[in-house]
Amino acid sequence: MAERFRNKTVIVTGGASGIGEAAARLFASEGGRVVISDMSEKGKDLSDSLNSEGYETTFIKTDVTNEEDVKHLVNSTVEKYGSLDVLFANAGIGGMSLVHETDFSAWKKIIDVNLHGVFLCNKYAIAQMLKQETGGAIVNNDSIHGVVGKAGVGAYSAAKGGVKLLTQSATAEYASKGIRINNVNPGYIDTPLLADLPEEMRQELIRLHPIGRLGKPEEVAKAVAFLASDDASFITGASLLVDGGYTSV
Ligand SMILES: NC(=O)c1ccc[n+]([C@@H]2O[C@H](COP(=O)([O-])OP(=O)(O)OC[C@H]3O[C@@H](n4cnc5c(N)ncnc54)[C@H](O)[C@@H]3O)[C@@H](O)[C@H]2O)c1
């Protein structure tokens, strides 16, 4: 196994489940010191289990919508490991409703976690990376719905479209400072986020992917690790679709 993250410190937000968990496992298996950040205590169980396998991980409980939590996440990471080399800003929530039926409170919650949370994590990670001679790499977990819409995902796509352009503007600000910032844009991925979908809707989603199935969290994690690694040294401001062809048709 390549060790692209040996001596690197990686934060994965929403690292307790789904795509974040798969990414945390991959970063750890490639030598990274991984900070698993999540609101859920399941992140502690994952960290304990990875440490018992000989990996170096830490759990830091974080609500990415809380600025003090995010500051604490970055500061504690740097206190413990000395640097922050990679951020995977992944924490996010779903939610479906037609625009005219969407409660304002539900709209605000989705924008708060999926856009404001990514902004806060980028803000404090970038501030730290600017202090380091070695710069850093950030991958924001966007979505196909940061690129194309779909009935029922108004709030979600508004947040994810915001993430896409936040990434591009931040790229313009920090590319010359040694900080690369990219998006990964998954199609529908088989994670707990989709667990409550009725079977009929699940089959409909599968049909929308020319590849004929939903994605796996590990397939997204591999793209994230690529973008975060030196293999992607000339890639910044990109949105990498990992979508089984969803947006091609
Ligand atoms: N599953 C999909 O089909 C899919 C597709 C495209 C993009 N995504 C994006 O991938 C990311 C991860 O989704 P997933 O499918 O792995 O979901 P998941 O529900 O399995 O994992 C999300 C994690 O984020 C955590 N989280 C939620 N709100 C948080 C907060 N305020 N602060 C900190 N942690 C919080 C949850 O506790 C959970 O552990 C999300 O940003 C989602 O929008 C998912």
Give structural notes:
There is one protein chain. With 249 residues, this protein is α/β, with parallel strands linked by helices. The chain has one domain (9-238): NAD(P)-binding Rossmann-like Domain (Rossmann fold). It has seven helices and seven strands; from the N terminus they run βαβαβαβαβαβααβ. It has a seven-stranded parallel beta sheet, sandwiched between helices. Strand 5, helix 5 (154-174) and strand 6 form a beta-alpha-beta unit. It is globular and about 45 Å long. Nicotinamide-adenine-dinucleotide (NAD) is lined by residues 13-14, 16-20, 38-40, 62-65, 90-93, 113, 117, 141, 143, 186, 188-189, 191-194.
Q: What is the highest CATH level, the class?
A: Alpha Beta
| CATH fold field value | Rossmann fold
| Distinct ligands, ions and cofactors found in the model | nicotinamide-adenine-dinucleotide
CATH-level-2 architecture: 3-Layer(aba) Sandwich
Give a summary of the structure in a few sentences:
The chain has 249 residues and is α/β, with parallel strands linked by helices.
Topology:
Elements: E1 9-13, H1 18-29, E2 33-38, H2 42-52, E3 57-61, H3 67-81, E4 86-89, H4 104-131, E5 136-141, H5 154-174, E6 179-186, H6 199-207, H7 217-228, E7 239-242
Parallel strand pairs: 1-2, 1-4, 2-3, 4-5, 5-6, 6-7
The structure holds nicotinamide-adenine-dinucleotide.
Features:
alpha/beta; 7-stranded parallel β-sheet; 15% strand; 43% helix; Rossmann fold; 7 strands; binds nicotinamide-adenine-dinucleotide; 249 residues
